[in-house]
């Protein structure tokens, strides 16, 4: 059956090597750096009690969401670069990949919104924040966010299934375009436009509040230090939101293009080239969104950098101490057996510094591959209908 996948009907199995190879290298780098960043973020927050705050609990959940996106989406995306068809992973994996990718994307939006609200309350309404922003409440909110994300992901992933294209070739596609169109539209509004609007408004209010506070001349030294710290936090969170917007806007453009683009036979080739370019750009930025957050934390948060150094220098010190003890034990036993021999031991040449690489999209929400396959399927059907019409005349 797989041998009957006709390239004349379905198009080439992959793009040219000068396109596929650079994309593969970029995606592998994103996967490695993103995994290092997300896992390191989770370790730093988990191992340092000083990092156990409501905001950092949201960021911990965001790192988990990012890592889930990388694991469930990126390897198969790379595979599809080299072999668009036939689909070899089965219907269950086709659906689960869509469900998990959608869930991680939805949770990212909601988590960013949650800690933006938390920062807004802390700066603009500190007394209310003191009442609402506690660890137990943050944990409950994170759990609610994940449950809600799964609930929103189910209708987005339901149309995904493996079908026979041209009656012979298996592909993971969106089986019902009429169903997915309103789903894409609603998800773009609820999970992109509305959250970004709310987040932008809240940060404007935070900026106004901080600016008015800094205009007060008679501020104590302690108050000035608090304002300075607040500004650093706001800058970090604004950078996270801006990065999120840049990474996700092309993704939503690609999704909407896949359902709205209706080329004629004359413009079909041009539209396909434009769509392919949007797909590649949105794919890179979508998965890159899972790598940028720890970079922002380390560049803009002194507290996070200190906790990072403390955590991993502690691991290094323990490992070095254990090796030194073992070396000392061996030397002691050797001296007991051979009193005349002197073991000078060995000294470490240098400390190894650990550098955190780049840390955070339908799925791209219901998987980029499935959308592309569905888009190509619709294009083929429209082409066939255009070819049939002259014969009717």
From TrEMBL:
Molecular function per GO: neuromedin U receptor activity
One GO term describing the cellular component: plasma membrane
Membrane topology per record: Multi-pass membrane protein
Main location: membrane
Limits of the G-protein coupled receptors family 1 profile domain: 37-297
Keyword Transmembrane recorded: yes
Top-rank taxon: Eukaryota
Protein name per Swiss-Prot or TrEMBL: G-protein coupled receptors family 1 profile domain-containing protein
Organism, as annotated: Psylliodes chrysocephalus
Upper classification of the organism: Eukaryota, Metazoa, Ecdysozoa, Arthropoda, Hexapoda
């Amino acid at each position: 059956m797989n041998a009957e996948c006709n390239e004349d009907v379905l198009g080439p199995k992959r793009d040219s090597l000068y396109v596929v190879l650079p994309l593969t290298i970029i995606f592998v780098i994103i996967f490695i750096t993103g995994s290092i960043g997300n896992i390191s973020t989770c370790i730093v927050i988990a191992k340092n009690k000083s990092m156990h705050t409501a905001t950092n609990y949201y960021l911990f959940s965001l790192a988990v969401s990012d890592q889930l996106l990388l694991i469930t989406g990126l390897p198969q995306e790379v595979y599809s670069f080299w072999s668009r068809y036939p689909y070899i992973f089965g219907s269950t994996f086709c659906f689960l990949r869509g469900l998990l990718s959608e869930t991680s994307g939805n949770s990212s939006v909601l988590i960013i919104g949650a800690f933006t609200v938390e920062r807004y309350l802390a700066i603009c309404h500190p007394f209310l924040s003191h009442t609402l922003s506690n660890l137990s409440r943050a944990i409950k909110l994170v759990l609610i966010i994940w449950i809600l994300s799964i609930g929103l992901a189910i209708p987005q992933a339901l149309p995904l299934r493996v079908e026979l294209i041209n009656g012979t070739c298996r592909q993971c596609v969106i089986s019902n375009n009429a169903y997915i169109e309103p789903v894409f539209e609603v998800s773009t509004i609820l999970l992109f436009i509305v959250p970004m609007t709310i987040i932008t408004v809240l940060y404007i209010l935070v900026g106004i509040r901080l600016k008015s506070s800094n205009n007060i001349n008679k501020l104590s030294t302690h108050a000035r230090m608090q304002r300075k710290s607040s500004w650093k936090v706001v800058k970090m969170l604004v950078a996270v939101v801006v990065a999120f917007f840049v990474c996700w806007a092309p993704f939503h453009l690609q999704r909407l293009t896949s359902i709205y683009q209706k080329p004629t036979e004359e413009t079909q080739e041009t539209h396909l080239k434009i769509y392919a370019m949007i797909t590649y750009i949105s794919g890179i930025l979508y998965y890159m969104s899972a790598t940028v957050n720890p970079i922002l934390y380390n560049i803009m948060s002194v507290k996070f950098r200190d906790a990072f150094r403390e955590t991993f220098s502690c691991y290094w010190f323990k490992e070095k101490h254990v090796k030194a003890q073992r070396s000392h034990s061996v030397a002691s036993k050797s001296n007991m057996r051979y009193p005349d021999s002197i073991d000078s031991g060995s000294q470490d040449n240098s400390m190894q510094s650990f550098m955190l690489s780049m840390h955070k999209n339908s799925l791209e929400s219901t998987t980029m591959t499935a959308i592309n396959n569905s888009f190509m399927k619709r294009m083929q059907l429209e082409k066939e209908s255009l070819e049939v019409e002259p014969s009717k005349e």
